[in-house]
Fold:
Amino acid sequence: MIFAVAGLVAAGTFLVTSRSLSRIVLGFALLGHAAVLALLAAGGRAGSPPIVDGEPASDTANPLPQALSLTAIVISFGLTLFVLALARRQQVLTGDDLVEDDVEDRRIATTHDAPEQSIDETRELESLNDNPEGGS
Amino acid sequence: MSAVVALCVALPLLASALVLGLRRMAKVRDVITLSTMAAVTGLAGALLADVDRNGTVVLRVGDWAPDLGIVLVADLFAALILLVASATILVVELFAIGQRRTPAGADPAVVSPILLVLAGGVSLAILTGDLFTLFVAFELILVSSYVLLTHQGRESQVRSGMTYVVINLFASTLFLFGVAIVYSATGTVNMALLAERIPELPAATQVGIGLWFLIVFGTKAAIFPLFSWLPDSYPTAPTTITAVFAGLLTKIGVYVLIRFFTLMEFDELGPLLLVIAGFTMIIGVAGALAQDDVKRILSFHVVSQIGYMIMGLGLFTVAGVAGAVLFLIHQIPVKTVMFLAGGLIEDDQGTSALTKMGGLATSKPVIAVLFALPALSLAGLPPFSGFIAKLALVDAGMSSGAYVIVTVSLVGSILTLLSMTKIWLGAFWGEVTPSAVPASSRRSITIMQTAAGLAVAGTIAIAVVAGPLWRMSEQVAGDLLERTPYITEVLGEVVDR
Structure:
């Protein structure tokens, strides 16, 4: 279980740090699974089913982490959808799903004398400024 | 009184569902939204009066035992912050109703219900007595903030909204891992039980849990190494929304930090907190000095001011924590009204760039007054609330012998004043530039100015009632550091069962 959590966290973190939004979404899905697994692992070992054969209550699995996991799953599901919608919006607006540079960074890059970059950067900045309505 | 505690959370959420169905009836929607927030503010006031007189109110949802069920706890700290927070949301909602007639305004059919969800989340985060409900409350707040930030769908909003969402989503995931870690270490997520069990853990585990939650809550509160998402994302949203974010979201992070760290006795992290506080103050204010856009300057100030509260917490003395509490109470309305004034400037001039405006002191004296009063308070000049809060913090620092952090905080104060002067010079003095957007109707301007005026009156009121507030803050800090009142109030009746 712990190895599964570790593997999911590693893959998820790698994907989240990438530049493409679809990968980031996948990364968060993996991280969400990892967190839920960790919650389950925190509940201790699996017990026997609670109602069948009238098992004593002390042998059943701890229900609290399962309740917590359910809530967490629902929340992460909703958020994944929201991020997907955002990524789609970005794709409609800019034509790609890459994470863009910080505005501040770009402003510094344009003021700094960097000829091979500046044309590209200025164009991006202009498109940012010229498009206040964003086609909404 | 325990019904009131539940209503503070349930009322905004129910009203939000109702308002969502009233897309076309703007008048009815406004009335419902405003009256709901007014009701919550009234309830919070009643709760504060009751808690101050009769002690902590504890509500066990569904009458489950506290180690299994959800517990809502209204102690003096929670009631104080709840009152300030709901009053702030009320004022912002009023401002939003005025602003929707202007071109930059947000769509009220979206803002009203989502703001109510946010209010419900804020109440829940303040009142909750267990870690997992806190996670759910944070998600409520964050999801509504994602929607508020991006609902206009402009390119800059989607871009910065993406950064905001990704960073906060990551912090939420870490929070969930933190809950799992805490649960496997102690077997509970109830904060009062945690407060009993965490100090019994091995020292290394304690520090690990403390650092983990410092990162989680620190990302929400935008402390030093984790703040860079804030100045990038806040300025792109419409003013109303930035005002709520700046006034409340980061402050809820600080509230939770104070509650969690005092309750779990993470005293050994105090020096680390002080270092973080110093860096947060200076880097925040230095960032503000480098900007020339009103909203970006104010966003960096949000970061800088967080440092002062962390400083009070880091001292881990009654005076220090009391100072932090007082600072928190002063910051929520002041920060909000600063952004509202910034929004008035932006609506009038059609831009928030300082280089493109000027002369507002002669052309729009009302805005000048509305900006000047909270700006002086923010910089900590007497007789405003900022002075009292900063004096309390500096005094606490001196009596603990933490001279370095006191010096840093004073330097930060001077730099804050400097950057406020910069806004004043750029926006209010100099040649008069004509109003770029004359289209805003007189009525909406009146509503917006009334809302901002109310908030300014609120900040001044804080300075006026500083005496009782300071007494309450000291009592809050005493209770927080003592820990036993909270624990026995929450767990008290378990013994009887």
Notes: The longest strand of chain B covers residues 57-60.
